[in-house]
Specification:
Elements (H helix, E strand, L loop, with lengths): L1 H9 L7 E5 L2 H9 L4 E3 L7 H9 L7 E5 L7 H12 L5 E7 L2 H4 L6 E4 L5 E5 L15 E9 L1 H8 L6 H6 L3 H6 L4 E5 L10 H14 L12 E5 L7
Parallel strand pairs: 1-2, 1-9, 3-9, 4-8
Antiparallel strand pairs: 3-7, 4-7, 5-6
Length: 236
């Protein structure tokens, strides 16, 4: 899974600019076998963004793009789109979103978000939002798990030395940025990604790969990407 996620990033980034951040030697060994750059990190990080913050402290870059390690069919074009948006407003953290299907609205697996008319994030979590008086689905958006942040934003994020109160409840690290008063902008991306959060998600990914016949990409493009991988092979 982590190898295929890297392949997706290689579609739009040079191999030297993509790295996997992990605290698991098994993942490091897989990366080494496939010629994937990696960085070992502390095993004590509560989130992937904390892991990326550690890497950012020793790997200089103007921006850091965090693609979750459990996204083997992530749309590479979405990386370019969110980077383009972030380059126009470097001081803000950027996250992706797409339209939410009615069937996804009531599933806590899908992170829902609300944002203002200026595309600035208001709230992000697992509840059925936006709600209505009669409890029916009107419309909604779900998170597409790619983040772009500056080194300064990562430093402030990691300064808490742990999760913030709402972040713990929602189990979503983007809440920490909001709790710290750090602005987050949203960028509409495709709905093609399939994050592997449950065993049945593997079947969905395998079906996609069989249907599309996806192979290793031509890694001839350039950008700056950082992938974090948690102990179980997933992560941000």
């Amino acid at each position: 899974m982590i190898v295929r996620t890297v392949w997706q990033c290689w579609e739009v980034a040079a191999k030297s600019q993509v790295l996997v951040a992990t605290d698991d030697q098994r993942i490091a060994d897989v990366c080494d076998h496939h010629g994937i750059r990696f960085e070992m990190t502390s095993p004590d990080h509560p989130t992937g963004s904390d892991r990326v913050a550690e890497v950012a402290a020793r790997v200089p870059a103007s921006l850091y793009i965090n693609v979750q390690g459990d996204e083997p069919v992530f749309n590479p074009s979405d990386i370019l789109k969110i980077v383009s948006a972030s380059l126009q407003d470097r001081d803000k953290t950027h996250i992706g979103y797409c339209d939410l299907k009615p069937s996804e609205w009531g599933d806590s697996k899908h992170i829902k978000l609300t944002f203002g008319l200026n595309n600035q994030l208001i709230y992000i979590g697992r509840a059925n939002v936006p709600g209505s008086h009669d409890g029916s689905f009107q419309f909604g958006y779900r998170q597409v798990c790619v983040y772009v942040y500056s080194k300064g934003a990562l430093e402030q994020f990691a300064s808490t030395k742990g999760r913030t109160p709402l972040e713990k409840i929602e189990d979503n690290e983007v809440m920490r940025f909001l709790e710290l008063g750090l602005p987050v902008k949203v960028v509409k991306l495709s709905d093609q990604s399939i994050s592997v959060d449950r065993p049945e998600d593997v079947l969905s990914v395998e079906a996609r790969l069989l249907r599309t016949g996806e192979e290793s990409p031509d890694a001839s493009h350039k950008d700056q990407t950082c992938i974090d991988s948690e102990k179980d092979g997933s992560g941000e």
